[in-house]
Amino acid sequence: MKINLNKITTKGKALYLAYDQGLEHGPIEFNDKNVDPLYILNIAKKGKYNGIIFQKGIAEKYHSEIIKSKVPLILKLNGKTKLFKGEPLSAQIATVADAIKLKAKAVGFTIYIGSKYEEQMIEEFSKIEQEAHSKGLPVILWVYPRGKSVKNDTSKENLAYAARTALELGADIAKIKYGNNKDDLKWAVKSAGRTKVVIAGGIKTSENAFLKQSHDIMSSGASGLAIGRNVWKSKNPLELTKKIKKIIWS
Ligand code: FBP
C-alpha cells in the first residue's frame, strides 16, 4: 500500500528531532536546559523540523504544547533502558490507537536484528505496520543490528541488511546508523528500494565533523536525518539546524 508521507517530509526529504534518549540512555545525556522536553519542542518548532520523536509519556504529558507547536509528532511505540546488558529487546509500550489518540503523524518502532528476541520484535512490528497502514499512518522503523550474533553493527553487509529488513517488513522509512563509509551507505540505500532511509546522529561530535558527516550521508542517497544529541547538546541548536537543512535540501 502506498502511504502518503507529505505530513512528515518536505520534497521527499526529512529532518527529524529524536528525543527518546531519556529512556534509551538515561538523563546522563541531559543538562539543565535539554532535560526539559519543552526546550526540545521549541527547537523543533523554531527549526521547522519534519517531526519530533517522543515516547508515549512525554507525548501525553506535554500534549497541549505539542499540538500548539504544530510540529508533527512521531510516536515511538517501543523502547528499553541501557542498564540491562543481555540480548536486546525493545518492549512495546504504546499502540497505534495511542498514536491516533495523541494525533501523531507517524509511528516509530525499533527492531534489533540479530538479537535473540528479533522474532518477537518482528512479530510486534508486523501487527503495528498493518494497523498503522490501515489508518494511513506512516511507519518509521529503527533497524539496528545488535546482540551476541552481531560482530560489526555498521559493516557494509549489516547496514544493507538493516535497510533491506525495513523494506521487506513494509516500513515507509528506515532509520539506520552511518558507518562512516559513503559507498556502504549507497549500497544500503539501494537495498532499501522504495523505503526511504534516514540516518541517526550518534554521540555528540564537533559541529564541523557532524556537518561533514551529514553532507556525506546526503550524497549517498539518504532521504534525511533523524538526530538528537548533536542538535540539542549543541550550544546553538537553531544555527546548527539551519546548516543541516541547507545540506539536506541543497
Ligand atoms: P542520536 O542522534 O542522539 O544518536 O539519536 C538517534 C537514536 O536513534 C535515538 O532515537 C535513540 O534514542 C538512540 O539513537 C539509540 O541509540 P543507541 O541504541 O545506539 O544507544
Task: Characterize the structure shown.
With 250 residues, the protein is an alpha/beta fold. It has a single domain, classed as Aldolase class I (TIM Barrel), CATH 3.20.20. Helices cover 41% and strands 16% of the residues. The strands form 2 sheets. The protein has an 8-stranded parallel barrel with strand order 1-2-3-6-7-8-9-10, surrounded by 4 helices. A two-stranded antiparallel sheet has the order 4-5. Strand 6, helix 6 and strand 7 form a beta-alpha-beta unit. Helix 9 runs parallel beside helix 11. It is globular. The two termini are 30 Å apart. The model has no long low-confidence stretch (mean pLDDT 98). It binds 1,6-di-O-phosphono-beta-D-fructofuranose. The site of 1,6-di-O-phosphono-beta-D-fructofuranose (FBP) has 14 residues, from helix 1 and helix 10.
Strand-helix topology:
Elements: E1 14-18, H1 21-24, H2 37-46, E2 51-54, H3 56-61, H4 63-69, E3 73-76, E4 78-79, E5 91-92, H5 96-101, E6 106-111, H6 118-134, E7 139-143, H7 156-169, E8 173-176, H8 182-191, E9 196-200, H9 207-219, E10 224-227, H10 229-232, H11 237-248
Parallel strand pairs: 1-2, 1-10, 2-3, 3-6, 6-7, 7-8, 8-9, 9-10
Antiparallel strand pairs: 4-5
Helix pairs in contact: 7-8, 9-11
Bound molecules: 1,6-di-O-phosphono-beta-D-fructofuranose (FBP).
Which features would summarize this protein structure in a list?
250 residues; alpha/beta; TIM Barrel; two-stranded antiparallel ribbon; 11 helices; globular; binds 1,6-di-O-phosphono-beta-D-fructofuranose
